[in-house]
TrEMBL record:
It comes from Kitasatospora aureofaciens. This is Alpha-galactosidase. Residues 1-25 form the signal peptide. GO terms for molecular function: alpha-galactosidase activity. The keyword Ubl conjugation does not apply. It catalyses: Hydrolysis of terminal, non-reducing alpha-D-galactose residues in alpha-D-galactosides, including galactose oligosaccharides, galactomannans and galactolipids. Residues 114-139, 675-696 are annotated as: Disordered. SMART domains: RICIN. GO terms for biological process: carbohydrate metabolic process. Keywords: Disulfide bond, Glycosidase, Hydrolase, Signal. It comes from the Bacteria. Belongs to the glycosyl hydrolase 27 family. Its EC number is 3.2.1.22. Residues 557-695 form the Ricin B lectin domain.
Length: 696
């Protein structure tokens, strides 16, 4: 979220990350992060957040107006079903105190030693002496009467949203204070999580705002503000995990559905290695360990795209954006999103910040009383481009526009009156069903870059994304803010081998048949063409020009789910510590090494399927079948062994059929419960277990 005191820190930290040696190639091949597994956000979340248009002084009435507008104007029906109140909703002290907590000169909460004396906290010590519950600011969120009982203003809004078929979200932080100086949840996780659940909160945006002085390491390195006290001894990973577990405990106790958690950690914060606790879970996390931690950074901080999906459903992977389209183009959040595809799968999504599509200048009349570059509203072309980039990357679609009527969203200042309400044309763009279907596609496979990275900030970008029904989505993006461009993508570059494909351009609705290439029409400045090409995704060969399924030969490990099993994943039975020769089975999707499989093509057109285990017990064993019907088990690779070879085909819906070469039988499962053995059975189109879906 936007907060002026830390803008410089963000710039410095991004520079430090670039200098750390974390190249696109290095992070792009990291092991996919395991899903949080709370059953939420199986497609990217959609909704609205109050910050971009209303800021820190959002009121109960403004949120009600937004809920009413979204329900009355088709946004809820389109999928934008969550309304979230951002920072500034609570009083500046908990109910255990009668006055606001003391702050240091740096805006941090004043911490104290065991004797009650103030301390700096820069050594990781110091106590937060506040206690009690968070309270909604009564002037902004007055109490209301619902069904004969008095509820606070936040609880009332949750009830109101639920009555309109919507979910309600609330803001908190993993630090002592929020970005706007209100009480944070660090050290109060159980209390706050229990309160949120009792109030009816369905979604939490969990921010990271560590105020404090510049902290110097033992070697004299300046870490810039990284916080104080416990903020320095526990990683963002650990602090978020603590709150997430508190939410799960609260919902279990209340008998309510689990709460969706959105982590908004900033890349400015890298931690201080010398102060991180020895028992911090980030130190031993296998994904973080495999990716490595650059010098002058602590594990469990940046980059969140490596590990965040294990503790949250939505994961900020970049800094704050404003209404400059560059922030979401290749030199901004797009390039970062392309580096972390492993964090994208059902239950875990890379968050590219709130959208500015349809946002209007809240600071003045643009071009008259306000000329700040970061306040200029998007053109409709720019709104289409932002929405296209986010949908291609399977990112959450959270609007920051003012979703209220023109009358409700009026402002008056300096003798001018203007409305920040979304225009009818921008509203229609948000509701474009074809764009939303790309974003929400069940295959959950984000786009990849076609060709080389752009040679300049204004050079075109082409993205492609394989879809669950076998279609291919292609975005042709004009990054030039001033000039139109004619952009096309050849079939060879897209990995297409057919002579022609039917297409639909999703913004104009134009249809046709493409031969040899797609596009080739003029695209406006900062504009986009977004195509859905029928049947072109099933045989893209991962962009290599091959005609087989995309998972074959792409050099990546993938998780697979058998049909009819509720999303359970194929795994090495017993995990990577099991001895060679054990069976495969299915289990709840965690996407650890034992649930990850690489499809390596053989010269004869068959495929070898190997796991990602690399332990003392076994190392990259291969899936094998027996002489007949029986279990599919794991063996060390034997060149030329037909029972270790498979034929992999993909239908028009993207599902895989995996057939053993040695016995001619099809990979199936013995049942639908966790622990059911992987089997080879006679081919049966009616058997759901013979249809395998790529999870990551």
């Amino acid at each position: 979220m936007r907060r002026t005191p830390h803008r410089l820190v963000g710039i410095l930290a991004v520079t430090a990350l670039a200098a750390s040696g974390l190249s696109a190639a290095a992070v792009g091949t990291a092991t996919p992060a395991a899903a949080l597994g709370n059953g939420n956000s199986l497609t990217p979340p959609m909704g609205w957040n109050s910050w971009n248009s209303i800021g820190a002084y959002v009121t109960e009435n403004q949120v009600k107006q937004t809920i009413d507008f979204m329900a009355a104007n088709g946004l809820v029906q389109a999928g934008y079903d969550t309304v979230t109140v951002d920072d500034g909703w609570s009083t500046r002290h908990r109910d255990g105190q009668s006055t606001d907590f003391a702050k240091t000169a740096d805006g941090a909460m004043q911490l104290y030693d065991a004797n009650g004396s103030p301390v700096s906290g820069t050594d990781g010590g110091g106590n937060d002496t506040t206690s009690g519950h968070l309270l909604p600011e009564p002037d902004q969120f007055p109490a209301q009467t619902v069904d004969g009982r008095t509820v606070n203003g936040i609880q009332y809004l949750a009830w109101y949203a639920h009555g309109k078929g919507m979910k309600f979200g609330l803001y908190a932080t993993d630090t002592y204070t929020t970005c706007q100086g209100h009480p944070g949840s660090l050290g109060h996780e159980t209390t706050d999580a229990t309160d949120f659940v009792s109030w009816g909160v369905d979604f939490v945006k969990y921010d990271d705002c560590p105020y404090g002085p510049t902290v110097y390491g033992p070697d004299g390195y300046a870490y810039y503000p990284q916080g104080e006290g416990k903020e320095l001894t526990r990683s963002i990973y650990a602090r978020t995990q603590t709150f997430q577990r508190a939410l799960d405990a609260a919902t279990a106790a209340a008998g309510r559905p689990k709460v969706t958690l959105s982590l908004s950690a900033q890349p400015a914060h890298t931690g201080i290695p010398s102060l991180l606790s020895a028992d911090d879970p980030a130190r031993t996390d296998p994904l973080i360990t495999a990716a490595g931690t650059p010098p002058h950074q602590a594990p469990g901080y940046s980059p969140t795209g490596i590990w965040c999906g294990q503790v949250a459903n939505m994961c900020r992977i970049g800094g704050d954006r404003d209404s400059e389209l560059d922030g979401v183009l290749y030199n901004g959040q797009l390039q970062t999103a392309l580096k972390y595809p492993g964090n994208v799968h059902p239950g875990s999504w890379n968050d590219l910040d709130m959208m500015f599509a349809g946002w209007q200048d809240t600071y003045g009349v643009w071009g008259v009383t306000d000329t700040s570059r970061g306040h200029k509203p998007f053109t409709d072309d720019e709104s289409r481009t932002e929405l296209s980039v986010l949908s291609m990357m399977a990112a959450p679609l959270v609007s920051g526009a003012d979703l209220r009527t023109a009358a409700d969203s009026q402002h008056t200042a300096n003798g001018y009156t203007w409305s920040t309400g979304i225009s009818s044309s921008a509203l229609a763009l948000l509701k474009n069903r074809d764009m939303i279907s790309i974003d929400q596609d069940s295959l959950a496979q984000p786009a990849t870059l076609v060709g080389n990275p752009p040679s300049s900030p204004v050079a075109p970008v082409v993205l492609k994304r394989r879809l669950a029904n076998g279609d291919l989505a292609v975005a042709l993006i004009n990054q030039d803010p001033n000039n139109w461009a004619m952009i096309s993508a050849g079939f060879a570059d897209l990995g297409l081998t057919g002579s022609g494909y039917g297409y639909r351009e999703l913004w104009s609705g134009a249809t046709g048949t493409a031969t040899g290439s797609i596009g080739g029409n003029w695209i406006p400045a900062h504009g986009v063409a977004l195509y859905r090409i029928a049947g072109a995704g099933a045989g893209t060969g991962g962009g290599t020009g091959g005609g087989g399924p995309a998972v074959v030969g792409d050099g990546r490990y993938h998780a697979l789910s058998a049909g009819g099993t509720g999303g359970q994943a194929l795994e090495v039975q017993g995990g990577c510590s099991a001895p060679v020769g054990g069976n495969s089975d299915i289990n709840a999707y965690r996407s650890g090494a034992a649930q990850q499989w690489m499809f390596t093509p053989n010269a004869d057109g068959t495929v070898t399927i190997s796991d990602n285990c690399a332990s003392a017990a076994q190392s990259h064993t291969v899936l094998a079948g027996g002489n007949g019907v029986g279990s599919a088990y794991l063996l060390n690779a034997t060149p030329g062994n037909p029972w270790q070879k498979w034929k992999v085909t993909q239908n028009g819906s993207g599902a895989l059929t995996v057939t053993n070469v040695g016995n001619g039988l099809t990979l199936d499962v013995a049942g639908t419960a966790a622990g059911s053995t992987g089997m080879t059975e006679p081919a049966n189109p009616a058997s759901a277990g013979q249809s395998w879906t790529v999870l990551s």
